Amino acid sequence: MLVDDNPINIRVAARILRNHKYNISYAQSGRDALQKTKTIDFDLILLDIMMPEMDGYEVCEALKADPGTNKIPIIFLTAKVEPENIVKAFKLGGADYVTKPFNGQELISRVETHIRLKLSREELENTNLLLKEANETKDKMFSIISHDLLGPFGNIRESLEMIVNKDVNLQEDDMQNFIKAMWNSIGSAYALLENLLYWARNQQGRMVYKPKPISLNSIIYETYGLLDGVARHKSITLKTNLIEDLTIFADKNATKTILRNLVSNSIKFTEPGGIITTKVKNRKDNFVVVSVTDTGVGMDDDLKEKLFSMNKTEPRWGTKGEKGVGLGLVITKEFVEKHGGDIWVESKPGEGTTFYFTLPKSELQ
After folding, report:
1. What is the pLDDT of residues 199-252, one digit of tens each?
2. N or C, which terminus of the chain has less Cβ within 10 Å?
């Protein structure tokens, strides 16, 4: 943006800049310039110092005080070259200055330099942000591997070692309970490891998605068949409202993972004797809505906001001591969004939880 109260200066500078393929917006007062920055993202501002009502120094101060504009480089336009004026411009946050009347080559050279510096800074900031996220993800993965995977496998190894060495003498009923406990530990560890591998492949762009028309009912029934034993172990009833068989356009394995994670999560946080219901609603647009509702412990608003984040620090414990690290919900969200769908949750402490997600009925255009 070019800010100058003199229309002749604006025309001269604009002609020079347009000849070098720059898009120009201009303002003839400081207040007009500040107003424009609220609706337009500028790469650079050329700012005249001597203007009535609000001079360039005041405009610069206002821009640097606003988080939305404080990173825009400002090149002052000045007919004054006294050291005190230049020093003041730099102290207020100016990046450079150009003297009037304009030297076209000098103006273009400084504009190009500071736009290039701005783009380089933004690229560096984005890279640093990605590195920070990658480090946080790596730390979370190591935490999951070291605690949530090694723990169950360690318990299983110790239990089997006791049996092999005949350190315990169990009756038939006790042995059955012992085996069931190991079976639950193996199931939890396997599900976590599977989710971890799915998630890692997805982050590396190696997850293969092959969406095609599939029966949603068959996916739900298959999921229930897989988790029926776990649910019955807690005396939890699995229900559906399935009537018509809806066809969705989705990756079969990813859809299985979505449903398995949500139903498993509900089983984990539902008290024995509870009910989990999966419903499907056919919308008028190109999506179906699937909901998984439980009569479990529910959650507060603070937890709901963190639910799909990889950076949660506190694990949740199920109603029978099952540990939840939340990785399954992170993957679920990524898989739903990969299909162009949405996922959200409704819940209150002590009143159960409902997860909703959408999947397309046909290929998205």
Report:
1. 666 666 666 678 999 999 999 998 898 888 788 888 999 999 887 888 999 988
2. C
Q: Which amino acid is residue 205, in one-letter code?
A: G
Coil vs helix vs strand at 76: strand
Instruction: Yes or no: say if 230 and 267 are a contact pair by the CB < 8 Å rule.
Output: yes
Residue ranges of E strands in the chain? 2-3, 26-27, 45-48, 74-78, 96-99, 212-215, 237-240, 247-250, 275-282, 287-294, 316-317, 323-324, 343-347, 353-360
Choose the final residue of a domain: 102, 131, 159: 102
Q: Rounded to an integer, what distance in angstroms lies between the CA atom of residue 248 and that of residue 238?
A: 22
Q: Is residue 324 part of a domain?
A: yes
Query: Which CATH number does the domain housing residue 272 bear?
Result: 3.30.565.10
* Number of neighbouring beta carbons within 10 Å of residue 213: 11
Sign of torsion, CA 31 34 40 46?
positive
Q: In this structure, is residue 202 part of a structural domain?
A: no
